[in-house]
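Look over both lines before class:
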Amino acid sequence: MYDSRKMAGLLLFVGGAQFILGIIISEALYSGYSASQNYISDLGVGPPALIYNSSLFLLGVLGLAGTIFIQQALKSRIFTALLALVTIGAVGISIFTENFEPIHTILSLTVFALGGLSAIMSYRFEQPPLSYVSVVLGAVTLLALVLGVSGINLGLGAGGVERVIVYPTLLWMIGFGAYLIGESGNHSDNK
């Protein structure tokens, strides 16, 4: 017996948290790496590539497994499909590093956009104030994506803008995961 909300939440929480740690560890191990000037994906072809790519792959696999439980719990095909595409895209980015252009860029842009949309769409399944926070995090991701694609970096550098795209979605994933874990006892979707 398992609670599909709790399982979905656990998988999203662990996936997002371990990837943030994977980025931090990879950045620390990459001598001369600049969070402002280097893209996050530079970690996938640099000295810490094994750590970074494994962590990104795990994010995708855990997230994809989480979408199975999300569909069982929330019964929203559109939301589940968006999140599944984000997580499949993460696996793709971990395999098709920035050495594989244009595939890498196409996957990255897709993951960024759909990640922001997933955060915004999750408001339907959350209670305030988290529902508001999710919309704001998704909007920040999408706004930063537009700025980044337009070449406007607001003095943050290309890597800094990319982090403003990526981190809000990861924070949303962790928060949404924790929310699903906490809400699991309030719903009767035990299977």
Notes: Residues 4-186 form one domain. The radius of gyration is 16 Å.
